[in-house]
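Appendix C reproduces, verbatim, an entry submitted by the partner laboratory led by Prof. M.T., so that reviewers can inspect both the input and the predicted structure.
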Amino acid sequence: MIPKFIKKRLFKAPIKDNSAQLIDKPQGNTPISQLYRKLSGQALDVAVKPKLLGEVPQFDEGDQTLTFYVLQDYSRSNSLLIDLQTQEHGLPPALVEVDDSTHNVYENAGIIFLHHPKAKDDELSPRLARLIAAVLQYPDLNIRLIPVSILWGRAPDKEDSLFKLLMTDNWEDPGITKQLFNIGVMGRDTFVQFHAPQDLRQAIYKRLPDDLIADELMEDISESVAVDIADLTAADIVSPFESSISDTNTSSIGKVDSDAAPHALITASDGHRELVRSLQQQLNIYLDKQRASMLGPDLSDRRNLVDKLIYSPAIKHAIEVEAAASGVSDKEARATAKGYANEMVNDYSYQVIRIFDKFLTWLWTQLYDGVEVHHFERVRALATDHEIIYVPCHRSHVDYLLLSYVIYKRGLSIPYVAAGDNLDVPVLGPLLRGAVAFYIRRSFRGNALYTAVLREYMHTLITRNTPIEYFVEGGRSRSGRLLPPKMGMLAMTIHSQLRHTNKPVVFIPTYIGYERIMEGVTYIGELKGKPKESESLIGLLKVGRKIERIFGSVHLSFGTPLHIEDFMQKFDVLANSLPADRTDTPLDDNTSAMVDNIGIKIMQHINKAAVVNPVSLLSLVLLSAPKAALDEDICREQIALYHNIASHMPYSDDTIVTDMTPQQIIDYGIKLKLIERIPHILGDIIQVAGKQAALLSYFRNNILHVFILMSFLAALVARNGRIERSRLDNIVEQLYPFLQSELFLYYPAHGLTDTLNKKIDNMIAHGLIVELSDGMLSTPEANSSSYQQLQVLATPVEQSLERYFMTLALLAQQGSGNLTEDEVVDLCHLLGQRLSVLYADDIPDFFDRALFTSFVTALIRLDYLKKDAETGVLSFDQRINDIAQYAKYVLSTDIMQTLQQVASLDEEEISHAITEISNKKQRKFGRKR
């Protein structure tokens, strides 16, 4: 249907004598042109091997929708390349005539070019104009536009030589000379991405007022002014440049006068021109944004960037403050600031990126069976209009390269990664700096000038819309659990956003899960007290020796994005509320609380995006069994139970569960040499392979949060035989805040009862719990398979509750007002190490100091402990003992007695332990300095 504002201005253009042209075939489809196209395509296919980015659009079989590919810039090589790609991937062909006589649509190719090198700035795409007119004329005509990006190389606009400028794709339109360089030099480094298809009719409707669509656009076409389409020419509506514009001369097929395409509704109305102009502009903007998300921002070279940082108003002010405080000249302070900037600033090199691309492609095939990626479409949808901050969990040094590789291979710009300066070692350090890394010191507390330079560098990256990646945990997890978030980098991001913003900031929580990990043995040693080895080239070579080993698959899952605007609204924080020319403006209480909340939400969303892979599921089952061994039939049943629980009552909609069968999971664990099958005449036994239990606890902890509440409920029923449902709910609600703090559970405490009831009902449905009358819950029959499954399911929560009880026992035994927070954590860590070696089969969970820190912090936050602001000494009342009493509902009497015995230390033992711990810390600090 045609809107009235267009109908009223339709006119019949002067009829030209185009009969000869109408009878002849367009030159683009003559045998000579077809032969030229075929030969050119074959030649290009030899020279150019494009890499496809993103997903190929999928269409239903028999779909009759007319398809046109939208490119920004005209070039013969681009035309042929798109044609080859459409043939390869089974898409509607690009360089074949589109003929729909029913709707009077005839085009000699399915490509729309938005720009032509010889066109004037105000000229529009004739083909796009004709298609818009046809859609308005025929209500049943469906036309699909597929925007396409073609990159001859993926270097941002940061090349400083003529040769590089000729070779790599930047923001300039490709001329003939550059096309030849592209084909000859960058042909093997070419990227093509087909973007999401757009319905032309819907795109038109979006450009028209709502009332027009409702009241006028839907009028019957018979009311409109009749127009003989064959009498109208494209020249009458768009431009006099029709004969040479690329839409009628796609690639090098041949030139066709506009009058040779008679079947198009043509109007000279201003309304139609504005509609075409508006839609063409929208397509240009869309492709510009896609291009920016793939290439990254325009960048200056490193030296200029450092100078801009140092002479920015914010750093000038910081230098003046530093000079006054330190008693040095501005020149000396500026030199110090420049030294800091040189330490940290990235030195992006596309050549290094290409080297890493080839090396990592080879490395991943050597290390892993595959790299599984989930929910990446969320990132792609946000990349064009948001400043992306990737906030992954930190499992391994491989994380830096793996995440960047996945992002690069899927067509988005590589993020700049905040890396510790411990990685800035010879050979490796410069390579990482040339690819993804900018280096920051592990600790710079009290160094105001360094902080100012880092804040300004972060602000520069954010305002230039550079994607950034940092690890909120601050370091790699040695236990497999998430570490408490460090708020420094988050605070800097928020600080930058409140100074000035070009795009809204969005955080992308990212879960990374391995099935084997290179640093596994090192992690266990460090948890047991061995000093951390410094990164070095020798260490890198040692890691290289492991390349032939089996590491299974690796999983990346992109969680639900967190928009900073939502948090600002929640905490009543105003945009642009900080001075743009200062880095030292403190955050107010509201903003600080917002930063803390964002940190916790990031960790919760990482856990929501967890991948329950075969190794983590197998680890959870076997480490819950006595002596880490099970009859193979029982092992399969237990795996099936956990799989059903995770699949049918998922922890979150973002959580991914392996699709392997229980038997496949067992066989996979044997293949990875993590477990072994012991043949036996009464039935084979599956057990953890020698010295692998400690390592498997790491992978179990990756997914412990998925099953922890179910395990807690199972433990309460299994250890008591019978328990009232209301009593069970009350105990869980009392201890839930500590589990939530440790494992970053996302269930809100105020709605926990509903969550618990759903899980209890699920366990009843699986036969794990029997519901009796009067709200009583009971275990199944003692010798049944369900009873065995309940006992195994009850085990994972026990170690957490054991740590809690031991900490509470230590506090109660030493009394209120006698220990500081650090002393409690240090002593619990020391006792945990001893307990694990003596009683817990050397499982390293008790070695993890962060777990005791989390519990003590939660006790302070919930007001069970009060911390003196000056001395740091902890005081408490009878409620500490009340909490400890809940342990008896889960832990056996023997375990509680053992924990009390381990926690019973006299004054001399306490004094000796604290002294030794203090000396050890001083020696460690001395080595770092």
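The chain has a mean pLDDT of 81. Additional entries are available on request from the coordinating office.
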